[in-house]
């Protein structure tokens, strides 16, 4: 079993079937690490979560069959990022062994061709990568839908920005990516002058929440939906009153997606230092949330002290067992391992820099 996550960012350092007992894991499932190309742990951790997001994986494997990618030998320049991810997932799914590791070189090459942010040795943010790749998948699936209908070319010429908002595309084309990850927020504003309530809906592919010391994800979500008073310089322009008025504003989740991705905002800009700093606040995240009911199946963990360096690993729940993917290394970990990744209090061990950063829940219907 796992021996803990060290501050240095390693869960063992071995390759392949390190600490895996197949009798405790789903039959016919594959557990493969991914080679790190120097600074691609941010990419590997997200790819592992997406692979174990079963509806997402199923659609990608169908994509391989539909386009005949397994039989074609195309150059990377002739493949989309969607094609490359689908090929990677197919490569893992057909392995004869249950445990090992593969190289995602083609995917990483395509990613770096598409966007210069992911080139070079710089440390990247896993949340920004998740945001980028989901929007890229939406755009590319949409392009293929339009091409099939004879409406446009099959490939979008402008890839999405890696720092664009994590809201879903306003396009009328709803892709299978939207069906899995898209939720709906309602922004509700009540004028305190006339009582008129204005509602505006917006979609999201992941939910970013502010965090406070010594709290829980449940409390963070309640704060996310708390009522805010707009007054002074922040008054609300009411169309009914035809003027600026004091108002109350709140945001609430109208529709939970099939897979809820929650981003804990652990990196905060500090005015006094003119830089981003990591927040090590202790944030408990339960195995189950009542939103309606969603169950935790994946956690991306950031290990390190700052925003421009560190390491990412992912924890995936398979049946009743947690498996840690640390680049090429794969190992089972104790059920209480996540307790070491919730953050720390002021008096706790400051050498433990592992903190939950991205949480993935699937909806129980």
TrEMBL record:
Keywords: Hydrolase, Protease. Residues 149-172 are annotated as: Disordered. Its EC number is 3.4.19.12. Gene3D superfamilies: Cysteine proteinases. GO terms for biological process: protein deubiquitination; proteolysis. Residues 32-364 form the USP domain. It catalyses: Thiol-dependent hydrolysis of ester, thioester, amide, peptide and isopeptide bonds formed by the C-terminal Gly of ubiquitin (a 76-residue protein attached to proteins as an intracellular targeting signal). The keyword Hydrolase applies. The keyword Protease applies. GO terms for molecular function: cysteine-type deubiquitinase activity. It holds the Pfam family UCH. GO terms for cellular component: cytosol; nucleus. SUPFAM superfamilies: Cysteine proteinases. Belongs to the peptidase C19 family. This is ubiquitinyl hydrolase 1. The lineage of its organism: Eukaryota, Sar, Stramenopiles, Oomycota, Saprolegniomycetes.
